[in-house]
Structures are given as structure tokens and as C-alpha cells.
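Study both lines:
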Amino acid sequence: MTKRLALLIVAGLLALTGCAGAGEFGAGGRTLVIAIVSNPQMNDAISLSGQFEKTHPGIKLKFVSLPENQARAKITASTSTQGGEFDAVMISNYETPQWAANGWLENLQPYIGATPGYDENDFIPSIRDSLSYRGSMYAVPFYGESSFLAYRKDLFDKAGLTMPAHPTWEQIADFAKKLDDKAAGISGICLRGKPGWGENLAPFDTVANTFGARWFDQNWNAQLTSPEFKQAADFYVNLVRQYGEVGASSAGFSECGTRYAQGQAAMWYDATVMAGTNEDPSSSTVVGKSAYVAAPVEKTPSSGWLYTWSLAIPKVAKDKQAAWEFLNWMTNKDFVQTVGKTYGWNRVPPGCRLSTYQIPEYRDAAKAYAQPTLDGIDAARENNVRTQPVPYTGIQFVGIPEFQDLGTRVSQELSAAIAGQISVDEALDQSQKYAQTVGDSYRETK
């Protein structure tokens, strides 16, 4: 564990840059420094933060908002070294159980229990459980997601195509081929190719799972050159190279979101949270033109992932009660109402609270995707998405500390193959070496 922890810390430190210390006192009172991932839902929260400051006159908020890959590195480095830069951090269900076990996070259960109306039982059970360690929550969810496929109903109707409720990847590849129209600037499908274990590996790992692949066998032997892994990688790379978006090797969630919302893709496989952006009139030209179906499969009953962006308090935070007041504001039922009434109900953070799906205005605005989102989150169980046993937890990630570095390295190889710089075999051969080094360290400690 010491070796693995050191690797994680070093990987994070490589990306760490200077930051003002957390919990500073300013002229207006206490300033909380919050590290947050930059995406539309988080930006909405930042824009509404003045409401929190108004009702908490002794607390000022300072956000450090960064793109996903940069935010992960910075937050990991600060939290793992107990640097104290941040009073609250945005992390996921990948980090939460590991960091709780390491003693890096504050146990939030006492704060939850002392906050009337917070109602932890309102969280979707799979989301709540993924943020818990030994029965206590160590992070609270801002939004939750699985993955599903968005497709343009108008383009399918025009081409005389019918999308099944539970498509296979072979069917999706056939649809992409028929709908790809480079002359009109419309790709058959948009798939992430951007490097990052939370970028292209998220969708790719669901493809690998349903094709029967795994990262390690139960003896921690790396499996990245197995026939199943190679079949999945060949399929993914060929699909995005032939019928995917222009510049796919540098396209992540945000880039695909922009393309799809601007009518430049016939299908998009990604996080269920995408639907709010697709149906937002202020940013999308395809509002009302999409339908949403389950993540495509190959050999398994389902194939979606389970993920949640959440907020946690580092153990070394100076004013934990003030930090909890902010977490409570950003993750409680009232915040959902505030976003819906301020920006529109399509902008509400989804996949988190069961009560959200009982709000009439939200149910009406999200009728195209609310149930597929809930179905995807419910179906995202490890026994539904795998064909072989594994020694780790996680669906679209391997739940070990080294995966931030290992996954990033493998994602870079996959991206290079998508760019045509190397072959899939070359990418997997190098990836196998990276993975075997990690696997060897686990066999040594068994």
C-alpha cells in the first residue's frame, strides 16, 4: 500500500500548481476555497453561489474551477499530501471509498444526521452506497449518471431506420455507417477519443466489459492483449475513425456535447447527464429531436457505467462546519428547485435525488430521458456488465489508486490509435506492459 500511495501522490504532484491557502480570513469574514470540475452543471452552481453568501454573511466562496483532467490531478495531489489548499473538493465514487480508507476525508455522516431535512435516504441507493465507506457517507452527490445513447429521431426517420430500445454495438455501427454524412458535416456517431482515464476510457471500458474483456484476471495478470480486449479496442477505434467526429482523438465529453447540440452528429454515446444540455434551448439546436436508449451491449445484459460527481471535505480542512454548510446548500432538495426555477428544469442536476423525479415541472421537461437515466443507473451493477470475475471494483474504472496513472497512460495509447499514429496492436502491447507492472505489485502483496 505504501508503494501504491507514493505512486498516486507523485502522479498528482506532477500537475500541482500554486494555490491560495484554504480557510483564509478576509475583510468579509471566512473564505472557503472549493476545487470544482468545470462543466455546465458546476458552472450553474458557481453562478448561483451569491445566494449562499447572502444567507451565510460570514462566509465567502472562492472557486478553483478546472477541466476534468487538471482538476483530478490538483485535487488528488492536495488531498493525498494533506496540503490544506481546499476546504471542499469535488471528487467521484472512484476516489471516495479509497480516500476514506486512507483517512484523507472527513466522515460526513454526523453532519448529515445533524441537518434537518437533508434526507440521505432520498439519494438513489446505488449512488449513495458508492460514496460510502463502512456504512458512512464521506462525500455527498451533486449529480449521478450512467451512460446511454442519444440519437436524432429526425435523421433516423429520414433514413428509414428504427432504433431498438436495447441496441447492440453491431447495430450501432451499422446505423453510424448509414447516417455518416461528411458532406453535410454530420458524423454517424460521436465517441470520446480525448486522453484521460475519465475521458476516453469511460465509454471505452463499457465497450470492453460487454465484449467480455477485463483489465486483470483474479491473479492480477494483465489482460490488455487478450482476444476480448483486442476485439473491443479494434471495434471502438475503427468505429470512431470511420464514422466518428472530426478530430476525435482530442474530443471529450464537452467537445462531443457541442457537436451533438449543434446538429453535427447522428448519435452520441456518453453520460446520461448529457441529456440536459441536448434539450436546453439556450445551447442546443436539436431540442426535441432526440431520443435516448440503453447503453449498447454485446455479450452482457447491460453495459452502462455508474458515476457521480460529489463534494467532500478534506480531513485537514480548517473550518469543517462552514464547509458542510456549503455542501448542504449545493446538494440539498432546495438547490434543485433553485436551478429549475432560475435556469430551466433541463438544467437540474440529475441522477442523484429520487425526489427530483417527482417534481412535475422536471418530469415534464425531462420526459424524453428521465426514465432512461434512472433505468441506466439501476442497471449499472457489476454482475450485469461483466462476463468474467475480476479482483477489483468499478465498471468504467479499476478501483485501485494506481488507475489514475495507469488509466491515463492507456488512454493516451488509445487516443494515439484513434489518431492513426500507432496501430491498435501497438497501443495494446504498450498498455499491457503498463498494466502488468501494476498487477505485479498486487501479486507481491497477496
Q: What stands out?
A: The domain at 10-144+309-367 is CATH 3.40.190.10 (D-Maltodextrin-Binding Protein; domain 2). The first helix runs from residue 2 to 13. The CA atoms of residues 165 and 293 lie 5 Å apart. The radius of gyration is 21 Å.
